[in-house]
Amino acid sequence: MTATGRLTPLGHRNFRRFFFGETINGAGTSMSGIALAFAVLQIDRSPTALGLVVAAWTVPMVTFMLLGGALSDRLPRALVLGGCNLTQGITQLTMAVLLLTNSAHIWQLAVLRFVSGTAASVSYPAFHGMVPTLLPESERKAGFLLLSQAHSALRVIGPAAAGVLVATSGPGWALAIDAGTYLWAAYFLTLLRLPPRDRLGEKTSVLADFRAGWSYAYSLGWVIPVACCSLAFNALTAGSLDVLGPVIAKGTVGSSGLGYARAAEALGLFMFAFLLARVTIRRPLLAAQFGFVTTAVPMVVLALWTHTVPLAAAFFMAGCGSAVINLAWGLTVQEKVPERMLSRIMAIDGFFSFVAMPIGQIIVGPLTHYLGVRSVELGAAGLCLLTFLVGATRGPIRGLHLYGPGGQGRTGDREDQMSQIPQP
């Protein structure tokens, strides 16, 4: 794919507005994770407290994700995204004000994160259904890569900047910046001009759409197996990297060191995406399993060698794996799933991806108390390897192939398959 080919999607006005809005949003989001973690640890040094605040965002993601997918397939996705960004911007701004005025309590942060997670449960499936809506099929791979590279490029700067900002001025300012980017993204989404989606003749309820989405996911055969693998990997990552990682960093490399390491993760994602632009992925779900297992590398380094340089190298490898996952999954659903089912399939994948994360986030504190930091991190790495071995040997994951534009297995064939699914 040439440089010109990679930029072709920006020639579409609606995609260009969507791209700039979500890229600006990604700049703030890349700072918020580290800022929130050290904000909580500033109030309560317990990993259990941090796990509860982080889980407060994940629980509504699990609870409302599937209904969010059904809503996103019924309503204009740009409108849904805009409203969710506005809500998340307000919650982040409130959190920033509480921190800057030294009046924040753990329960307040947890409540605000719950509201933000509720909005994210709707915006997640809506966002992942936008590229096929905005671009013709021949330009969707370039569109996925553009979004991935832009977000990862900003994440190179964001975590490092957040680490320095937290160390010098406190976490409140980083969260205030994140709030501003959410509001800016909401503005860009109001500029999109999309034709009305064809829902004529459909008089089903949201619940009926929800059940139809499950029926279709089961009919495809590969959605549930790959989502179950995501469940295990994300639960392990949520506990060992997102909660225990900052706790370990606080006593070793500090917020700036962890910020540089997470920036290296984004750099790996950014650089590897350029390589993937020149590679044809034929068995995407198998490739995604190799991407997932790279998350075990920073777990091992956190357990055995917590210094900035090796930690950055480990997260760089994990970033390369994330680039594979993002592209492989994006190409799979855009080829195999019709547009009117996209958000529901993404919601089902998101549900499985997030459902076990609160468990990982909450139990990592007690496990660390009884087993120790090193044992928990190495145990999580071992479970990542085991999950990879199980996933890579599953028939639906190994057997799914991509054919490219005009090939077999196109969404038209899937539309025929959908017509055979009993509707609730």
Short description:
By secondary structure, this protein is an all-alpha fold. It has helices spanning 3-7, 13-43, 47-74, 77-100, 106-128, 130-134, 140-169, 171-190, 206-220, 223-250, 254-276, 284-293, 296-304, 308-336, 342-355, 357-371, 373-392, 395-399, 411-419. The protein is globular and about 50 Å long.
List keywords for this structure.
81% helix, globular, disordered C terminus, 424 residues, single chain, 19 helices, mainly alpha, Growth Hormone, Chain: A
CATH 2nd-level architecture: Up-down Bundle
Instruction: Please tell me the overall pLDDT.
Output: 82
Helical/strand content category = mainly alpha
Specify the biggest β-sheet.
none
CATH class: Mainly Alpha
Instruction: Kindly state the percentage of residues in helix.
Output: over 70%
Query: Helix tally?
Result: 19
Element-level helix/strand string? HHHHHHHHHHHHHHHHHHH
Number of structural units classed as domains: 1
Query: DSSP strand (E) fraction?
Result: under 5%
The total of beta strands comes to: 0
Head-to-tail CA distance between termini: 43 Å
What gross morphology would you assign?
A: globular
* CATH topology call: Growth Hormone, Chain: A
- The CATH superfamily name is MFS general substrate transporter like domains
Over the alpha carbons, how many angstroms does the gyration radius reach?
A: 21 Å
| Unreliable residue stretches | 406-424
